[in-house]
Amino acid sequence: MKKHNFFAGPSIMPDFTIQNTAEAIKDFGGMGLSIMEISHRSKEFVAVMDEARQGFKDLLNIPAGYEVVFLGGGASLQFAMVPFNIMKKKAAYLNTGSWASKAIKEAKFFGEVDVVGSSQDQNFNYIPEYTIPEDADYFHITTNNTIYGTEIREDIKSPVPLVADMSSDIFSRPMDVSRYGIIYGGAQKNLAPSGVTFVIIKEELLGKVDRHIPTMLDYRTHIKKESMFNTPPVVPVFAAVQTLRWLKQNGGVEAMEKINIEKANLLYEEIERNKLFKPTVTKAKDRSLMNVCFVMNETYSELEKPFLEFATSRGMMGIKGHRDVGGFRASLYNAMPRESVEALMDCMKEFEQNH
Ligand SMILES: *Cc1c(COP(=O)(O)O)cnc(C)c1O
Questions:
Q1: Which residues contact 3 (CB under 8 A, 6 or more apart)?
Q2: Domains of the chain, residue spans
């Protein structure tokens, strides 16, 4: 039976990425060696790293003055690295969920944190209003809240450098990188297997803090050494390059946005139409294109487990909602074909008819 992969992360990847990575694990570029057993300083791997950096710049139209680095440690390490490198005194944060809360917790180790808006009162099911203080060193947002299914889909104008955790919506739409100071994310949602973290940095922000920064935690180290200061996660970087190629071959982020809007609209419409279900994010403009969260309508709450079992029996994988939200979450990242969304909708319709 065909499996439809709705996992939130690690999550679906293009076949192109999986096939080419599997091949390179056996024989990398005809070298007769696995990519896992050659030096990261070989010219063959240096070319992969160069292509990763250039692929980001091309696909996201990254302007001059920005650099791209690939690190370990996940988005979670960036929660600390960002304030370590650029927080002088005070930073503003928008609290849109547990990832944002974790970022806030780390920033507090480095200075004053002004939480300018929070949607915690309603279990983070909306994007709160906020005003950005002009005296903050930067303003931090989480563009896509993977757990709750909310998303900030515009490149907001900020009077202070804008820092964004884009772990789960990078490459889902065209964006204006010039509006941001730092963009970071773990690769494992929309790009590559886990193990590599991307950071896009406006270089002029660096070198302005008084504190000593340990070498490995200083962005300047990795910019200067082109992400080769220490051994990078070679296989995830290789896989990321395959996804970047796949994105280019498939019309880039403009094409992705178009398909992503189509896929998400189809599913949200079915959730609204179907008497058994309702979306958890009530305001349509706050709804994520990447993670569609929904629950059973109150009168049918006892059908939650049976629906999960039914959908699983039809090949729907990973649709159980995060424990903080309950219900269901269908993640519709770039690599997910429209047919999988339709297959899930068919399940929902059939289950409705049976009840
Ligand atoms: C998954 C996720 C993280 C955590 O990423 P790690 O790479 O596991 O540290 C952080 N932020 C967002 C928005 C995420 O979706």
A1: 315, 317
A2: 15-249, 252-354
Q: pLDDT value at position 11?
A: 98
pLDDT for residue 79: 98
Ligand 1 centroid to Cα of residue 17, in Å, is: 21
User: Each residue of 153-190: pLDDT tens digit?
Assistant: 999 999 999 999 999 999 999 999 999 999 999 999 99
What number is the average pLDDT over the span 295-306? 97
Q: Whose CA is nearest to atom 13 of ligand 1?
A: 167
- Cα of 163 vs centre of ligand 1, distance in Å, is 15
Task: For 299-328, give the DSSP string.
Answer: GGGGGHHHHHHHHHHTTEES-BPPTTT-SE
Evaluate: CB of 101 within 6 angstroms of ligand 1.
no
Is residue 233 within 6 Å of ligand 1 at its C-beta?
Answer: no
CATH of 15-249, one of 3.40.640.10, 3.30.1490.20, 1.10.8.60, 2.60.120.10: 3.40.640.10
pTM over 0.90: yes
Residues in the chain: 355
Other C-beta atoms lying within 10 Å of the C-beta of residue 354: 9
State the closest ligand 1 atom to the C-alpha of 186, by its place in the atom list counted from 1: 7
Band (pLDDT 50/70/90 cuts) for residue 341 is very high
User: What's the 32 CA to ligand 1 centre distance in angstroms?
Assistant: 36
> 324: Cβ–Cβ under 8 A, 6 or more apart, which residues?
98, 123, 147, 148
Active site residues: 99, 165, 189
- Write down the pLDDT at residue 305: 97
95 lines ligand 1 (CB under 6 A): no
How far does the centroid of ligand 1 lie from the alpha carbon of residue 298, in Å?
A: 31
Give the pLDDT of residue 297. Answer: 97
Cβ–ligand 1 distance for 76 under 6 Å, the answer yes
Q: Say what percent of the chain tops pLDDT 70.
A: 100
Helix (H, G, I), strand (E, B) or coil at 252: helix
Mean pLDDT calculated for residue range 224-233? 98
- State whether CATH 3.40.50.720 applies to domain 252-354: no
What residue's CA is closest to ligand 1, atom 12?
167
Residue 334's closest CA among 197, 190, 153?
190
